[in-house]
Task: inverse folding
């Protein structure tokens, strides 16, 4: 057990971390273009934050949270999602007193959920999330949807589409809940166990069930869209107008409700088609009441979360190769007692921005060449007696075998400009 990662977690090896760095760089640039700045919140929070924010009727709170008592007998939970922590940070740091909207993003943020591990879904996964506080207009919702869509599209992910819905607000949603419960009342016994549990606590989530039997039983369920108040209906219409003007493929899907209690009005998902069916790549929505629920003022907000592991999985499935940067520009090998000269040269090259290394294992010259070749380096520099005396290096092009002797001062320019 000591040498095996816990179930549902995965190492990112040195041979693949460049893929994560590439993706993170693209995400940072996309966020910066829209004025979002990075926030970094703790890996764990007080459990009460998620009970109040995420909602005690959700599967996350009821079944999936990693919760424990610390040495001070305080209930602590590893973050099961990113928004609640961002809200807590927004309030604790009085960011609401600054000019709004406040736009923040988090990246490579670890998220923990105790659920059955499967492809693209781990017990520890990492998210790219955007949160926009203080913007009430539908343009803010559309901005996030477009940012996520264009980011994924630019990465090369195929068959993308957007699904949107409105789940109303505290003013109009209770009426819909009552209508939905009346519709489900005669079908409760035929629903799956999870949906039977949801019937009293959160009937809206029944519409989100993936069980074929439940989807069939609820296909004629009343739609929240038919019961929106004027404010929610106007907001949803303006969102569609924004998306229409942007020309991206979307459709209204009244079954999208998302799995967190804090959502109001807009909810959305970005979907891609795979050989195994449709897969959600990104999900989010508006949460206009969450800041107040956590103890702050009435401030509207909207955001989304996107799993890095899932994006990388889709890139692989679409055959999109992320370019691997060279590990080294040059590897310095040496003969005899010239390790010190090799060491000095390596340090000088690194100060000039050259990726350089040397043997640290006491290998023979032949073994040094063999190791250098395994790293995939293009240039190999040799320091022997003659080179050390003359202050030169014998450079070998590992791709074509050509050799030349240059001064140590000229090495950096040659290998980088090549």
Result:
């Amino acid at each position: 057990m000591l040498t095996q990662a816990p179930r549902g977690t995965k190492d990112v090896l040195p041979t693949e971390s460049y893929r994560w760095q590439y993706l993170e760089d693209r995400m940072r640039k996309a966020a910066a273009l829209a004025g979002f700045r990075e926030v970094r919140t703790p890996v764990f929070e007080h459990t009460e934050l998620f009970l109040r924010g995420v909602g005690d009727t959700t599967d996350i709170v009821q079944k999936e949270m990693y919760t424990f008592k610390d040495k001070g007998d305080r209930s602590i939970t590893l973050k099961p999602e990113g928004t609640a922590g961002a809200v807590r940070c927004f309030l604790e740091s009085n960011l609401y007193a600054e000019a709004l909207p406040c736009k923040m993003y988090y990246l490579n943020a670890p998220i923990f959920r105790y659920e059955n591990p499967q492809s693209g879904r781990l017990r520890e996964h990492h998210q790219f999330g955007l949160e926009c506080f203080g913007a009430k207009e539908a343009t803010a919702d559309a901005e996030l949807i477009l940012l996520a869509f264009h980011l994924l599209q630019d990465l090369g992910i195929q068959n993308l589409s957007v699904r949107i819905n409105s789940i109303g607000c505290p003013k109009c949603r209770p009426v819909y809940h009552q209508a939905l419960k009346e519709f489900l009342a005669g079908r409760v016994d035929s629903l799956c166990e999870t949906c039977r549990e949801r019937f009293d606590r959160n009937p809206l989530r029944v519409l989100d069930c993936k069980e074929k039997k439940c989807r069939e039983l609820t296909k004629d369920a009343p739609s929240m869209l038919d019961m929106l108040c004027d404010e929610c209906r106007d907001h949803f219409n303006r969102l569609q107008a924004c998306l229409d003007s942007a020309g991206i493929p979307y459709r209204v899907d009244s079954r999208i409700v998302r799995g967190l209690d804090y959502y109001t009005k807009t909810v959305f998902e970005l979907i891609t088609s795979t050989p195994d069916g449709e897969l959600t790549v990104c999900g989010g929505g508006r949460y206009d009441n969450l800041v107040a629920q956590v103890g702050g003022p009435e401030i509207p907000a909207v955001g989304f979360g996107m799993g890095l592991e899932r994006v990388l999985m889709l890139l692989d499935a679409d055959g999109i190769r992320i370019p691997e940067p060279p590990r080294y520009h040059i590897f310095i090998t040496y003969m005899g007692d010239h390790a010190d000269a090799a060491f000095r040269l390596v340090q000088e090259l690194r100060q000039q921005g050259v990726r350089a290394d040397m043997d640290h294992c006491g290998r023979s010259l032949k073994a040094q060449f063999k190791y250098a070749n395994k790293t995939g380096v293009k240039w190999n520099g040799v320091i022997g007696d003659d080179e050390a005396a003359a202050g030169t290096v014998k450079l070998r092009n590992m791709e074509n075998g050509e050799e030349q002797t240059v001064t140590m001062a000229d090495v950096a320019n040659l290998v980088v400009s090549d």
Observations:
- The longest strand covers residues 102-112.
